[in-house]
Here is the input.
Amino acid sequence: MPNAIKGIITVAVLFFAVIVAYGLVKTAPAPEQFTPEESTTSIRVVEVNRERVRLEVSSQGSVMPYKESELIPEVNGRVSWMSPNLLPGGYFAKDEVLLRIDNRDHRSKVARSKAALNRSMAEEELARFELGRMEELVKKKLTSQSSLEIVLRNHRIAEAVLQDSKIALEQAFRDLQRTEIKAPYDGLVRSEKVDLGQYVSRGMAIASIYAAQYAEVRLPVADKQLAYLDLPLGHRGELADEVKPEVLLFTDYGGKHYEWIGKLVRTEAEIDSRSRMVTAVVRVNNNNNIDQPDLPIGLFVNARIKGRWAEGVVTIPRAALRNQSKVLVVDKDNRIHYRDVKILRFENDNVIVSDGLESGDVVNISPLQTIVEDMLVNPIMYSGNS
Here is the structure.
């Protein structure tokens, strides 16, 4: 009996304890709900605008003479005088005398030709007089027709000799003038191959010269790049002035930066079968670049050729491009999204986009390692100076 009472008491205590514990649980305050804040990543962004952009094509090339000539004497003789400018690098003006050939023989030839002409004139005058006199005698029937024909033939011979004497004198004068070799244009001497007292022959090259006012640069351009230049299709020869694209040439030389403005004047006819390159020829008028030295022959320069206008395009930094044809756009809630874009071309450190972006779009330019669609970011507008 006592054991039964103990068991009942134990059960009663346990039941009471359960009731108390349940009451405590029911009356205890509910724990607070904790929601972690979403982390944000700071990124640099740019706001883009659709605009009209002038396309450019870049290239490189070496400066060449616009016009180059060989000085070649047209008469034989010994060199009697040389200009002090007739040496490599020497500058000369148009019609300046660069070299003289001993002209004594040629002056004698002129004198002999003058004397021969005077004699021919006298003989022609006498033959003309005889012809007139014989014609009068024939009219009066005082001489025969055959005698007139002989006098007429003599007059024709005298006329021919007179004409030949005039031509010989003109030739002698030209040869005398040719003993002075003059510059055909303003220019510089590239090389000379003659000395004072040397005997020179007709057709012998004595110096190489080139024009100073203009210089040309041959620029290789990929055939696909021609689409960005506003050039007439299939044009032959030099372009008209109104369609010649402007070209900026620049280089660093001797610790200084130099720039020249030129014009693309023509393209060469052939396309290189291996490189698929077309050669564009740029001409620079040194007189128009008064703040710069003349463009030196042989100098290697960089070039930017101004091309056609592209309407309604967006220019973004290359750093904004993802997977070749995507960008990350930040919406008004500061969340990023991938967007496909159509690329018109790459230009230096920028990408010109023709489709996929609108004015006012905000584009990421930071190199993010982990990207999640709809990720919250802290956009910082990039000014270009930071």
User: Anything to note?
Assistant: The first strand starts at residue 41 and ends at 47. The helical segments are 2-27, 104-139, 145-177. The chain is about 25% helix and 40% strand. The mean pLDDT is 87.
